[in-house]
Design brief:
Shape: elongated
Strand content: 15-25%
């Protein structure tokens, strides 16, 4: 197993009063690189640091000192299982050592999906570290409360889960796991099981309800589809010893693959529909001028239109030009090719 480590420079800006930490990054791999090393680091670590910076509980510095703690960010690549695991470990004075982890299966993903998976584990590990910091710093738990209080906390987490308040449910289960005494190990185990399986799969399935709402626009549906799939991929990565759970999550992924492919086709059709007016406008301009409009002429034409597409760029010569646009509704780029008066669309 190859292990690489480096120190990450601190963020600029004034001390916000949070815990000062020096970030150390580690990369362990079975000689398996699903992405170039720098891209993996950027996707996971940069995303995590952005989340933690926004919370202002941690203050990143570029040099150590007696009052400076350590945040270890370890990215583990498990080649045989095609799994990515990202672990944050905080060691600082007057704070118990805190660990948060997120993992995800990247099996059968293409480049864009793999990059987004690295961003996912970075974001989720950071959010979970935030939960642990909140429990420790804002209202430190008193371990060993009575069973009735622990049971009430667990039931509250389940109520929040069923109500669709997933972030609050996650925080509740996190607090329960930190609160339960050794004699209350079953409650801790149940809470941790929700965090690595029950809550994730329930949230993924609940997203499909919103996905099916006709009032939800296509871009939101795309976000829901990607997040639901990532939740299922995390279940696969975090439950490798539970064959039934892995099978359940894999079947859900298969369903999401069909749904997401259908959504892609719907978005493509929408882009084509929204570009119809542009195609007609370019074809008419060519008939009038005998050449494909240049950038100045095109911008003048667009100012007088009600198109939903934003001009991005142009290449080529008067007889053969390619125009790049962004469909602002679908948040998708496309190209229109003008070749001797024939206008074609490429996505």
């Amino acid at each position: 197993m190859l292990m690489l480590a480096c120190l990450v420079a601190g963020t600029a800006g004034a001390d916000t009063g949070g815990i000062k930490v020096l970030v150390e990054q580690k990369l362990s791999t079975d000689h398996w690189y699903p992405l170039p090393e720098e891209q993996m680091k950027a996707a996971a670590l940069d995303t995590a640091l952005s989340v933690l910076t926004d919370s202002r509980r941690l203050y990143f510095v570029s040099a150590g000192g007696p009052d400076v703690g350590q945040l270890i960010a370890e990215l583990s690549l498990l080649g045989p299982a095609e799994t990515v695991k990202f672990t944050l470990t905080l060691n600082a004075a007057d704070v118990p050592s805190l660990v948060s982890t997120a993992s995800i299966s990247i099996s059968h993903l293409e480049y864009a999906g793999i990059y987004q998976a690295f961003e996912y584990v970075g974001r989720e590990a950071a959010l979970r570290m935030e939960d642990r910091l909140a429990v420790t710093l804002v209202s430190p738990p008193k371990q060993g409360g009575d069973d009735a209080a622990i049971a009430e906390m667990y039931n509250k987490g389940m109520e929040l889960k069923r109500a669709g308040e997933f972030e609050s449910a996650r925080k509740t289960f996190t607090r329960l796991a930190a609160t339960a005494s050794p004699a209350q190990a079953k409650w801790k185990e149940m809470a941790e099981d929700e965090l690595k399986y029950g809550l994730l799969m329930f949230e993924a399935r609940r997203m499909l309800v919103e996905f099916g709402d006709p009032a939800v626009d296509l871009n939101r549906k795309a976000e829901l589809g990607a997040l639901a799939a990532n939740r299922a991929r995390e279940v696969i990565a975090a439950n490798q010893t539970h064959a039934e759970r892995v099978s359940e999550a894999q079947k859900f992924l298969d369903e999401m693959d069909v749904i997401n492919r259908s959504l892609v086709n719907i978005k493509k059709a929408a882009v084509i529909g929204n570009a119809t007016g542009l195609k007609a406008m370019l074809a008419e301009a060519y008939m009038d001028m005998g050449e494909c409009p240049d950038e100045t002429m095109l911008k003048s034409m667009l100012r007088g239109s009600n198109t939903r597409n934003r001009f991005v760029g142009i290449t080529g010569d008067p007889s053969n030009r390619t125009y790049r646009f962004e469909d602002t509704d679908m948040k998708s780029e496309f190209r229109l090719q003008c070749a001797k008066g024939t206008i074609t669309l490429e996505q």
